[in-house]
Amino acid sequence: MIENSKCECGHQNPVGTVLCESCGKPLFEDSQNDADTPLEMRYDGVARRSQKEDPAIIDRIWSFFSSVKIAIILIFLTLVGASLGTIFVQESTLINLKTTEEFADYYEETYGTAGLIYHALGLSRTYESWWFVGLLVMIGTSLVICSLDRVLPLYRALSKQQIRKHLQFITRQQVVYTGRIEQEPEAWVAAAAQQLKRKRYRVWQEGSALLAEKNRFSRWGPYINHIGLIVFLLAVLARGIPGWHMDQYVSLYEGEREPIPGTNYYVQSDKFNLQLYKDEELADNQKGTNVVKLYETKAKLFECIDVCDDPTKEPVLRQVQQHAIHVNSPLQYKGLKLYQNSYRQHIRLISVHPSLMDTATGKSFGSFDLMMDNPKLTYDVGPYKIRLSDYYPDFGFDDQKRPMTKSREPNNPAFIFRVSGPGITGEEVYSYFPLPNASSKDFQESLNAAFKEAGANTGRFTFKVANMFQQGKMEGVKYSEFSTFLNVRVDRAMPYIWVGAAISMIGLIMGFYWQHRRIWLRIDDGMLSLGAHTNKNSYGLRADVASTLGKTGITVTPKELDNRRNVR
Amino acid sequence: MNDWLIFSSNAFITAFALYCASFIAYAIAVAGKRWSNREPAAHTARWGRIAFITALLGWAAHLTFFFTRWIGGGHIPTSNMYEFMTFLAMAIMFAFIVVYLIYRNTLLGAFTLPLVIIIIAYASVFPSQVQPLIPALNYVWLKIHVTTAALGEAFFAVGFAAALIQLIRVVDLTTTDKAGVRARRWTEFCLVIIIIIIGFLAAVFIFRGAGYHAEFRQESVLIDQQGQAQTSVKEVKYGLPPIVKPYNSDVISMQPFMGLQQPLFEAPSWMNGVNAGRKLNTVIWSVISGLVLYGLMRLIARKPLVAVIHPHLTDIDPDDLEEISYRAIAIGFPIFTLGALIFAMIWAEIAWSRFWGWDPKEVWALVTFLFYSVYLHLRLSRGWQGTRSAWLAVIGFLVVMFTLIGVNLVIAGLHSYAGV
Questions:
Q1: Which residue in B has a C-alpha nearest to residue A81's C-alpha?
Q2: Cα separation, A30 vs A26, whole angstroms
Q3: Mean of pLDDT values over B256-279
Q4: Which end of chain B is more exposed for a tag (fewer CB within 10 A), N or C?
């Protein structure tokens, strides 16, 4: 389609121009139905970057993404896709399941056939799916191209505006007034200019023509908002840069210290603290239930400063941070953040303090500290020497009824000691089960009896924590009551995400809380023609025009100025 | 309950009564124009002023309720469904006052006030006692995030009210062409939905007032993460006569109601959400009582409700209504973005270690944002102003309500504590 885009005022307009860039005369009469309808004032009627005479393939892609219609379709598809993802739970929330089959089974068992279809369609991984990420990338592209396509021509159009506009341009605005002026034209225009300046309009006068403009900056709001959104989306993508994003979990019992994988930091839980609300603090429908008031991990962060990579040696650590981590209050150190994720009530032995006793008299020869993790191999107790020969942290029997350990967790620890010293020929073998329960006691007694039968001991000694229960408290036993789960995070993109969000917000506020208002007027042979335009809030613009006219001697209600109404 | 809380609940009742009075005054202002010996404009202005002042007084009482409950409860009352819905109603009143002061439109009050009254009544369905904060909520961002998000949504609500007036305003009662009839039917359908919600409230409060209750023992089998079947037995309490009983359950106790001795149906097995049977029963009751209510209204009016309301709206232009609706949404959009997305992300980053996790509530806040983005962009196109954009504003508010209520009742997720 080749059009003659030269206006009668002599200005050569680019292809696609709707309103002459210079005088504002509508260039296509045929596309404008009838001459009374208000003008299409989008982007001031200038041609967009994408409107070219002879598009190449790259221009076609550009023009595809530059279409607001396409942008709306993309947003709508994203909206529908995102909401589909909330019908059933997403796979990412089911942390215990791994394989596709497990997930498929889970969805079928939990949601029936619908669940099976949901999983088969891939909707259980909506937000990681190629099509959803693809939509977001396309929205990003559309944001860039739509903005560039419009902001530059619009900037050009707004920075060189003609003051005297074509009469058709003026009389076909959304807010219009025509009427006879009895006064001397230039004097009247000067008086109107004075009134408009009071309303904080910038005013340009050219003989009997006038242009008044206010809040032009608000036109840039949408573009600033889009820039913010682009920064935001890029920051989200940047999380894929190696080392920019880390997300892992550490489980710690009280007193435990663990390295944080992939870093040279160690984290230690000194104490886990759980508080429940008292019954009188609860509402009636909550009474008798446990409502958690606070849970926190008293944590310390260490940095390894020497011998970090040698597994045979203890690393040299330096404490760098200390914090009571609770929900809403993570530990932070140089971009590393440790969050309270959850906890588990779970008794775990840390150490016991048993005594070596004379079985017959109950007399103690002395006591020693016995750790459940990495116990020492030898102990000196009174005159005796004790050697740890076997340790089963989680004692049990295998298929052939041989003792074994089921895990490395001290759920049911069993120690086999060899005692030597005065009055003992060679070594005597004893078992010791430190857990204070009946089955441990049975195990210990039957094993020791078996050793005695085999001639490995004389039954002279007993290992036991002396006076374990004193005034209702456990003595000589250290244990952890809670395991805490901490979420370790590094997210180097966060600052950019916040910057993007802030820019976007500034753009939104600029665009929505101020409105660009323009008023054109000219007097031809004592006949005043006034047109005014705003992209938002024409109500406010009508009030401005009515009050300006009122102060210069023309009484008119804001409603009468509305061109849309006059048409009907 | 301490003195502050007693005072607070009295202020709440006062606010509710004043809102009702304000609504009546608005109805008189709009409907009474053609009463005998009256100058229509003067009548509307006079009663509109009375209504607005009553609404302002109601809002003052509402604010009193809010702050005394804050003092008495020790934390900002936005932490459960009761508190949030009452706050939302207060925010809608604020948004209404702002928009009213810009446009001075009496009709807006006549449509916003009933919306506020319905939301307050809905809030009262939930237990109103102050509950102590769970650790995740015990943070300064509870004050910031929830209030700004609600305020943004409140402006959307005012936009919805204006759009609904616009739709009733543009309905052509005489036309017989397809599009006109369709527009009429859908607008009437909107009103039916609102009446069903009123029916729900009526059913809940009538049976609660009568002290009705029934109880069921429901056995449910859950497959745990190890693949083991776990059977659990729960007691399900009903406040409405059970037309539908929970799936796989037995009656423990049930008061007969109008010859209803036994539940008529059992909920289907695929409805296995939390209290699915009871929710289904409530929905059935809402539809029944809503339709009865609607039927009564039709009997009295002897014409569609749209035709009852339409004649009272003729002295405002649809263009003005569209502008009010658009303006309210344009004011609300940045506030909503700030509160429901940006502040939400900041808090999520502090509390849950990630700024975004595709939690259902987060997704639906995004869906709301995207929907209103579509609305704002579509309005740039020719042909999407007027009635079409009014429909978008109505649907948008449905999305908002689903985000606020539907997600908590149907989907749950991390925001599930806000359910009760």
A1: B367
A2: 10
A3: 76
A4: N
